[in-house]
Amino acid sequence: MSLLKLLVLSYEYPPVGGGGGIMLKNVLERFDPNQFSITLITTWFENLAEHEVVNEINIHRVKSKRKYEWQSNPIEMLSWIKFAKQKSEELLKTEKYNLVISNFVVPGGILAYYLYKKYQLPYICISHGHDIPWVKPYSLYPLFFITQWKIKKIIKSSKGAITLSPELEKNAINFIGKAHSNLIHQIPNGYNHHLFYPREKVKNEIPKLLFVGRLVTQKGVKTLMKIALELKKHIPFELTIVGEGPKRKFMEAFSKKNNLESQCIFLGKITQIELSEIYSKSDLLIAPSISEGMSLAIIEAVSCNLFVITTEVSGTKEIIKNTKIGYMIKNSNCKYFTKYILDYIHFNHNDNFIVNQTEPSCNKKISSWDIIVNKYTFFLKNLNL
User: Fold this and answer.
1) What Rg value do the Cα atoms of the chain yield, rounded?
2) Contact, 61 vs 91, CB < 8 A?
3) How far, CA to CA in Å, does 35 sit from each of 27, 97, 378, 380?
4) Fewest C-beta atoms under 10 Å: which of 42, 59, 142, 147?
5) 161-171: per-residue pLDDT in tens?
């Protein structure tokens, strides 16, 4: 089969959405159009076109009850499934697809399973961690626990499920049973090597700390603010916070209440080009996440030779292989984070610190998106369709 016609279901997709949508965009836009024809169904948000073609991807955005790009709930998901189902069946009247790709097991996998049962359309799922039960709980975990029988059925009926890290691969196999382990495959996240690479650095007189991510509980933002408060007792610093989310109001209120407004700078959502510049000008990335699939921010940071202090969550062991790259802390503990941050800053702001390092020190197993796309291409082309 020379050309695969793909119908892709993704609850979120840039310019809105989090890491799962960003990962999908980087993969889809790099697929060879001579090998893949891509139709994408995602969520409509204000100021976005309901239909457009971008980089040869035929994008349909369906209106649903979803209000915010950084959070959702079961009612909004069910609403999206309803309208995405209508759009899928409308497209199937005139188009024939070889494969459905569900980005996230829930909610897209529910629709993929329906299309499989009604139209015999094979499908695969991409799991980003928290959409398979008993990954570390937060937010929508109770929903996934209650519906775990359905999630098992979705994965077992698929042509395969892709996970991002060995830990998530192991969790998925434990969840569906070793008898079905052949369905689980691991393909990690990647990075844009044209944007994120080591650059000459200038030592900052005041340490510049950085946080990048959605401002949600999962990312450990409460711990982040406690770290900032504790650091204020010991050193001057500047903490740049990149991202949007429902916890921003809490973080800004905390900052104001504790006189951290001069230290904590909220940039909101910025472009990838702007982000690459900030990585190169910062001294340290702080990532106190409670749960991750595989953090794009950490991958991008170490690709820019930016040191990382993070929690030991899924994917970090594969990125941070030694203490030249970063420190991993067992849990999101403010005191441990503060200690490691202070130790790193005190050591690296003396005369022994080499600031003009432009050779990458990060783990060589971290791959650019071009290499990751080759893995996806190989996987899809070798499915028994």
Assistant:
1) 21
2) no
3) 14, 13, 11, 10
4) 142
5) 999 988 889 88
Q: Show Cβ contacts of residue 309 under 8 Å, excluding neighbours closer than 6 positions.
A: 284, 285, 286, 287, 326, 327, 329, 337, 340, 341, 344
Grouping H, G, I as helix, E, B as strand and the rest as coil, residue 41 is strand
Lowest average pLDDT, out of 8-22, 131-145, 304-318, 330-344, goes to 131-145
Strand partners, 263: none
Task: Quickly list H helices, the chain.
Answer: 19-28, 74-92, 108-119, 141-146, 148-156, 166-176, 221-232, 248-257, 272-281, 296-303, 316-319, 334-348, 369-381
- To the question of pTM greater than 0.85 for the whole model, the response is yes
If one counts every other C-beta atom within 10 angstroms of the C-beta of residue 301, the result is 28
CA 348 – CA 345 distance, rounded (Å)? 5
Q: Is residue 361 exposed (0-12), middle (13-18) or buried (19+ Cβ within 10 Å)? A: middle
Packing angle between helix 248-257 and helix 221-232, nearest 10 degrees?
Answer: 20
Residues 6+ apart with CB under 8 A from 226: 334
Q: Over the chain, what is the mean pLDDT?
A: 89
